[in-house]
Amino acid sequence: MTPFTAILRDSDQELRIDDLVSFRSRDASGGFCLQARHADFLTLTEPGLSQLTRGQGAQFLAATGGLLEFEKGVLYFSTRRFFINANADIIQQRLMEWLANEKERRASSHVHLQQLEHELMRRLSRA
């Protein structure tokens, strides 16, 4: 099978894979598989697992939903966070932990923003 290149990006990293044989994932219409010479393609993937088949075997990609573009034989995938490993259980657990931490950080940021607004209103009311 003819290999193709994938460039995976999230907020912390970029990973280039040059020996990808197929990429399986899901979007709102269902499951799909991309191989070399596929027509140009653009979709939003659902959060969860994707399978990457490489020359030396399969790996799994656990990711938040993201933008997937297959253009001129190169797959570009951009998401907030992804994990890649041969063991699907390990990366699913890592993604779930990351999502829980992200939810906690957002809640904390929201509290700080409210405190900032209260302090701003308090200072404006004294002026």
- Name the average pLDDT: 93
Roughly what percent helix? 25-40%
Q: Radius of gyration over alpha carbons? A: 20 Å
Ends distance: 72 Å
What is the succession of H and E elements?
A: EEEEEEEEEH
Largest sheet data: 9 strands, mixed
Tertiary shape = elongated
Which residue ranges are poorly predicted, with pLDDT under 50 across at least 5 consecutive positions? Answer: none
Overall structural class, as computed from helix and strand content, comes to alpha+beta
**What's the number of helices?**
1
The counted number of beta strands is 9
Strand content: over 45%
Q: How would you describe the overall organization of this protein?
A:
The chain is α+β, with helices and mostly antiparallel strands and 127 residues long. It is built from 1 helix and 9 strands. Strands 1, 2, 3, 4, 5, 6, 7, 8 and 9 form a 9-stranded mixed sheet that branches. The longest helix is centred in the C-terminal third of the chain and has 39 residues, at 88-126.
What is shown here, in short?
It contains one helix and nine strands, in the order βββββββββα.
